[in-house]
Amino acid sequence: MDITGAAFVVMAAIICSVFGIPFTAAENEGPFEVRIACGSTVDSVALETGYNWSKDRGYTGGSSAPLNVTNRIAPQLNTLRYFEITDGPDNCYNISVPSGHYLVRFFFSFGAEDNGGREPIFEVSLEGTLVHSLAPGWSSIDSNAYAESLLHITDGAATVCFHSAGHGNPAIASLEILQLYVDAYNMGSSANLNVVMRTVKRVSAGAEESGFGSRVRGDEWGGDRHWATDQDLFVSGCAGEAIHTLARISNFGNPPNVYPEAIYQSATTIGTTSKLSYTVSVQPNQNYSVWLHFAEIHPWITGPNMRVFDVMANGALLFQGIDIVKIVGEPFKALTLNKTVMVTSSNLTISFVAVKGPVAVNALEVFQIIPRGYETQDETVWALHDIKHSLQLPSRLGWNGDPCAPPLHPWEGVSCAFDSKAGAWFVSAVNLNNEGLRGQIGDTWPALRKLQALNLSNNFLEGEISSFGNMTSLTSLLLNDNFLSGELPGAVGALPIRGTIMNVTNNPGLCGIGIRPCSTMPLSVKLAVTLSLTAGLICLVGGGIFCWKRKIAITRPHRHRK
């Protein structure tokens, strides 16, 4: 399941001299599960497992294409979803889920219609944290097509994003979001809440074949994990011996860490003077969580001090003097051990070294511990999503997921900065110059309280300018060469007084401070008022003359009588 092209090599060497989370769903109701057939327009049921697969939903863009290979998880699936450059550099699935602990699994594929048969290169993030990188050559190893990670989701939605590297179209054939017990794989305290555990390898030693949890009667809270056999991975000439039992195993399914009983009913063992080694290719200078599973199933080992061995990680002691029966008290009882190791090289070799009797191992798991990335402040995310719609951003810009996380994939035209006090990213600048934007500026921008520069020039924006006057951090505001209209708000016109660089020129319908005087009356109204005033004045003057002449006419006869 290693998506970085890491091949799993079992050196099961007889080292011959040449091989030297807040949980809200009620547990008694069963786990919350989402299985999406990407690209499909119909629901389906996997015949072998009975699992329901929903038609494609929750995606931000992309197109459907045929799936040309068999999906081992659900063979009935026959489509995939891919994201072209016209869909934007970042595309996501946003799926509502209860807060809890989840296993998220992908099946990646590509074909002629979606990628012209050429391998796409892209990255995948979960909740803003980069977790999977499909590097060149990933498709040459079958197991790389399947990838999974464990994480806690506390915001009510799983956000899964695919980030284009400019080489081919990201493509996904199936997506699963499967709930686990909240304390599963607990590494102590609340450490799990702050990390993503990327599955590097999971092995059922001595198993005759690989399989998912559902095919070995795994608990429904186990996330239907895939367990790979080690039987075809031994170094030639140095294979260990597989042992099996049909006896029941106790202590294997105790929450929160529930495992299939089957992984404890097989084991790989080796001679008393030898050691058994497993080597996993890893990313150097990272922490890895190692989980080891044991149960004494050999009929000859019935008590303590009959099988004792050490466990080494890259030559350093991991566990000393493991005596399975002594630790758990009896044979056929499961034991799980866990430890975190820092690996500085590109390989992690786990060796089981005999101290007394032959070594034996039932299963092992290796996870890369990836610190959760910081996310963008919530009010900023919601404001930008609203702005995306008000400005009618073209789909090629994307603007999906988190604008600043992961930091290697910020939104097009968005610059981010980190607020160490708040422990979150904020948007410091937005540059959408000459992007063909239409619509209106809207009144959401003031929600970006720390925005320092905004450039919306050379577009086709219409309507009035919202007030940017309360954006005290704004040092540059470029709205020129649009089709804005109305009066420039006084607070906006006063921005240059406090040092803000502002340009609102070449907006024919815009007026106000620093542009041109605004007319409060249309020309027709002005003309009507002028005519009315002129007519009134004429009437007034005419009336005065009439009254004056009438008065003269009345006074003349009186003078004649005298």
From TrEMBL:
Compartments it resides in: Membrane
Keywords: Membrane, Signal, Transmembrane, Transmembrane helix
Residues of the Malectin-like domain: 36-369
Protein topology in the membrane: Single-pass membrane protein
Domain of life, source organism: Eukaryota
InterPro entries, A to Z: Leu-rich_rpt, LRR_dom_sf, Malectin-like_Carb-bd_dom
Transmembrane segments: 527-548
Pfam families, per the entry: LRR_1, Malectin_like
Signal peptide positions (record): 1-20
Major place of residence: membrane
GO cellular component: membrane
The protein's name: Malectin-like domain-containing protein
Encoding gene (name): LOC112277982
